[in-house]
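#lab-general

N.A. 3:47 PM
ok so I finally got the sequence cleaned up, no stray characters, all 240 residues accounted for. can someone with queue access submit it? mine expired

B.Y. 3:52 PM
send it over

N.A. 3:53 PM
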Amino acid sequence: MRSVLTILILVAFFIEAPAQKFELDTSYLPVQKFQHKLFDRDITDSLDIYFKTLYLKAFDEPPLFCCGTDSTIRILTIPSFSPPTLAKIQRQNSEFVVVAKIGNKVGLDNSYYDPSKLRKRELAQFNDLMDRFNSGDFTMTSSDSAVYHKALVIEDEPFDYSVIKKVISVTDWRSMFELVDKAFYERPTNRDQNTIVEDGYGRMTEVWTSFGYHVLSRSSATPEESAVLELIHRIEKQIE
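B.Y. 4:20 PM
back already:
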């Protein structure tokens, strides 16, 4: 099991910290949009911005928020236990294209956590630690830390990705952009939530159209919009 437990442990320290403490690259994502409620507390989710920006940079993607010049849809998907992907619909010169980038490994760094390495009693403690995280308790004892680090696995493989590019018809192009209408822009960037999940799944959808820029960020704890799921379905049909 590959768990983004590291992120969960950092939540208590990072989630309400000001942007400058993270040294965020604010040209990628607008901090003011990433505000929502977590356990009935108003937060600015700087942690979400930080990690999503890391993935965009790992895929060698430029900012859309500050520098969009043409109609573009970009969807970053970070699965729990499989490599991340990035799909983009845009015009390149005189062509309308779908570009897909597929990562070569789970996550970006070279470490993950494997609880199967733990003994029975240690595994019970590890599971208890996860239950406490899910209830919003981010405290960690020295004993918790020992079990946590015993499950650490280090890899040597660096992050890389492959690219698939397909030219699409103007009709298909227009049908995809019809899904990001004015109602799409009225959706909140982050949904309020009362749970924290341990699987690390995340999806971010960025759009740049005549309505301007907008971004949606969702996780396993928050439902996804039907328009985004339909976009993904159409993109997969184009590149299959």
